[in-house]
Amino acid sequence: MKQLVFKSLKYISLLTWLCIICLPIVTLFLGSFMTHEEFSKASSLTFPTSFFYLENYRIAWQEGQMLRGFLLTFVLLICGVFGSVLVGSMVAYILARFNFKFKKVLVLLYFIVSMVPMTVSQVSTFKIVSNLGLYNTIWAPILLYVGADVMMIYIYLQGLEKIPTELDKVAILEGASYFQVYRQIILPLLRPATGTVIMLKVISIYNDFYLPYLYMPSQNLNTIATTLYRFVGPNQTRWEVICACIIISMVPMILLYLVLQKKIYEGLMSGSVKG
């Protein structure tokens, strides 16, 4: 009897949590098939008159220029992820393997910077980006995605703690340079940490609204996240079209997860076991 009660509570809690997570997505999906009048009168779980009303998707794709948004977001993802892996792993390699003056001070400064919310330092960051001539260009968010995220350094430092320094010494004795040690030994062994960094950066860059909106205000530089703002007006917000935009924007991430779910799961399990 006790086991039956425990099992029932377990399933009830799981189903309740599933409903809480899925409710916003179901609301978006239903709202994307409604007219503006239907949406303004409907509650969260009201069904549309017809699931064949696809005008919102047409407006979202054409007027929102979502193809351009996908391409621009893809470029930001490639540059941001590649730069983060390269910079994060190299900085962590230097901090973990070399002794030099003020090393502890440098690590402490990284820690302090990671504790400061990005919005607090945004005035000074904006001035620096403007003085560099990068405002309203694609290079502004790329620079910030690569250079302003110190969390990746800590992830790589944890990975480097598990790699014995004897491997470096043997390679150097056999004539390898420091860069060859990094590229041929350290970087391949940091694969679990690299998987974690890639996953975190892809999610954060793809969903980021703040940096593209602040540093790329041009209509020709809309990402998938800032495309939604095209349908927010001073007099009227087209929520039903925004719902369609969000549903379309979810498709690539769902497909990516379905294709890579085994590797993502293996990466998480590998990191947890080795941690």
Automatic annotation (TrEMBL):
Membrane topology: Multi-pass membrane protein
Principal location: membrane
GO cellular component, one term: plasma membrane
Domain ABC transmembrane type-1: 70-260
InterPro entries assigned: MetI-like (IPR000515), MetI-like_sf (IPR035906)
Protein family (similarity comment): Belongs to the binding-protein-dependent transport system permease family.
Keywords associated with the record: Cell membrane, Membrane, Transmembrane, Transmembrane helix, Transport
PANTHER family associated with the record: ABC TRANSPORTER PERMEASE PROTEIN MG189-RELATED-RELATED, LACTOSE TRANSPORT SYSTEM PERMEASE PROTEIN LACG
A biological-process GO annotation: transmembrane transport
Membrane-spanning parts: 12-34, 70-95, 107-126, 138-157, 185-206, 239-260
Pfam families named in the record: BPD_transp_1 (PF00528)
Entry protein name: Carbohydrate ABC transporter permease
Organism the protein comes from: Vagococcus intermedius
Localization: Cell membrane
Signal peptide: none
